[in-house]
Amino acid sequence: MKKKEKETIIETDKNDPIAEDYIVEDEQPEAAADEQPKDSLADEYLAVAQRLQADFDNFRKRNANVRADAMLDGKLEVIKGVLPIADNLARALAQEEKDGGSGTLFDGLTLIYKQALQLLSDQGVEEIPDLGEQFDPNLHAAVMQVPATGDQKPNEIVEVFQKGYKLKDKVIRYTMVKVAN
Amino acid sequence: MAKIIGIDLGTTNSCVAVMEGGEPVVIPNAEGNRTTPSVVAFKDGERMVGAIAKRQAVTNPDKTVLSIKREMGTNHKSVIDGKSYTPQEISAMILQKLKQDAEAYLGETVTQAVITVPAYFSDSQRQATKDAGRIAGLEVLRIINEPTAASLAYGLDKDGNHKILVYDLGGGTFDVSILEIGDGVFEVLSTNGNTRLGGDDFDQKIIDWMADEFKKSNGIDLRNDKMAVQRLKEAAEKAKIELSGVMTANINLPYISVGANGPVHLEMSLTRAKFDDLTSELVQKTVEPVNKAIKDSGLSLDKIDRVILVGGSTRTPAVQEIVKKLTGKEPYKGINPDECVAVGAAIQAGVLGGEVKDVLLLDVTPLSLGIETLGGVFTKLIERNTTIPTKKSQIFSTAADGQTSVEVHVLQGEREMASYNKTLGRFQLTGIPAARRGQPQIEVTFDIDANGITHVSAKDLGTGNEQKITITASTNLSDDEIKKAVKDAEQFAAEDKKNKEQVEIRNQADSAVYNTERTITELGDKVSAEDKAKLQTEIDAVKQALQGTDNEAIKTANEKLTQLSYDVFGKAYAAAQQAQGAAGAAGGAGNPGEGAGAGAQNDGKVYDADYEVVDDDKKKPE
Prior knowledge:
The structure holds two protein chains of two kinds. Chain A is α+β, with helices and mostly antiparallel strands. Chain A folds into two domains: 37-122; 124-181, Head domain of nucleotide exchange factor GrpE (Nucleotide Exchange Factor Grpe, Chain A, domain 2). Chain A is built from four helices and seven strands. In chain A, strand 5 (165-167) and strand 6 (170-173) form a beta hairpin. Chain B is of the alpha+beta class. In chain B, strands 1, 2, 3, 4, 10 and 11 form a six-stranded mixed beta sheet that branches. Chain B is elongated. At the A-B interface, strand 1, helix 1, helix 2, helix 3 and strand 3 of A face helix 1, helix 3, strand 11, strand 14 and helix 6 of B.
């Protein structure tokens, strides 16, 4: 097999002579059929076979966990959909509490909210600590920054726009936060 | 040999791909995402690249660098913590993360890459990109144009000469390019675009509409509520994506804000028509650049024979519509528009690395291959479109007691019933020792070599006797014949399924009768005369039903028999167990086991009902 010189080409004339390589490759099989000695053809085949085998092995290794990963991905999809429902229940309850917080509807909502949280915790989903914590881009996504007031420390999370959740080490939803300067 | 990766180094997002087993594969980053934001940030002496840098950008604006691609080839400096970085150095940081993530995925070091740039990039911009690669520890074997890469991804270099229009509407920029490919060379004929037009603009239109509508009906301007704005942003992006698929998106945001009279909720419906209306101005902005590019290319519209869509925003139906209108052609969009440039770069990388060779052109079997089994069913062994060479074996058995030979009827096709498929050949395997049906193990193997020649063999695993045939005719099917076979299978799928079910019901009932009768004989006097009579009644009922063709009747009769046999044999089993327990002997395991075995087999799920080989000899006197 002809060795192609490795030249790094900069497209000065804005043309891409890509298929040049294809033409070189295309000519090979014909030449091979006529002139290429059996040994070098065999070597070529061996190289291709080895590479394919290696690719396949790696593919296999990488896909060993495909089923488990797919299940987890499926779960995460659903959990992500449940989170806004939990959010809104929390908002409803917060509003009701402001207005006095009693009555059967309030009690009912509270139980439903607990149910949603139970579902999440059963799946191993945990809330990411937020208010008062130091902002950490590994866990939080900052959407606003304000000057620190009172005894707020710099880089402290001063308001939470949306709660964040994680499953073991994987963040399902980053906490949407406002950070003090 | 080390792999060469293909990199789409974008303004807002970057993507990496590599050839694996002859196919381009997008490499996910360490976070598991297939694209990486082109964002770099510095904090407390640490460096962040990608989504994490994006998440802290708001808190660290002076030390977060966005869209550095816009500065490549200029003398712009990013001064951070007293150090001055060139655009190449910042880009190198992005490339370095991409390199590391690729190495983690591939499990080997990566030292070479192909990187893409916009077609309009100048020499100094291209050189800067090459330098960025070098700084990141990558030898950049080739810099190729983004529209060219997209064309490679769609294989447009493989089938002759073309004039291609590439419409690239991505994160923050719009680029249109006209290319010509001829005699193996891509030539850029013209480029145009809008450097400040992208997906975010579409989101903004929805946000504005929601806020305006809400103000009209509730008197509250949500834009004054920072938290509400965040929720609107998320909802807008979600609605936009949904509207690429459905005609209406429902936006539901309870407790969006608090007004004078308490909390307020937002619930709105955005139709695709309305969305198209809101964004028509943006879509219109792409018209002039497209027309200009066509004009500058010197080509007339009808000479352009291929149109490609690149960039996430081309998923928008209105965008696809306008492209169709402007070019008069149906655009190519099968490959993920966020990834096709990286895919093309990987293909080029593959060519440079010697991966893409014509030496091994692999074929596939155009139609499924298999044999005929009990009831005239077609049992597939090799699915259609399986890459060859391939080999597959499966164990079958006999359909009747004392059967000493099996006929292997080899067929090709997609229908469920053998009679509708094409016969490729037949042969017999004889000399099978007489045994109860379902006992012998006959291994049938299909072995297709690289030339498409099929070898079918049947081997009696008990005696080692083997017979085989070689079939060569199967490769001569025309495309039309193949298409018809597939289409017929789809068309008759429901009917075929019914037929197959009928056969299965009969087979199961047949097995149930056989097994129940056998078990009664084996259990002998462990079954009371009364129970025996009851069972016989049910057995006769099933046999009666099998004489006719009413499947429901057969199924019902089978179920009654099965249920009764569970009860009767279950009793016998329990009694036997008690007897064993009393005697304290473990040696009687044979009988209860037998009963349990028979019971299990009587639930109609005996494997041999599905997999028995049809034996014409059954009909002949032995």
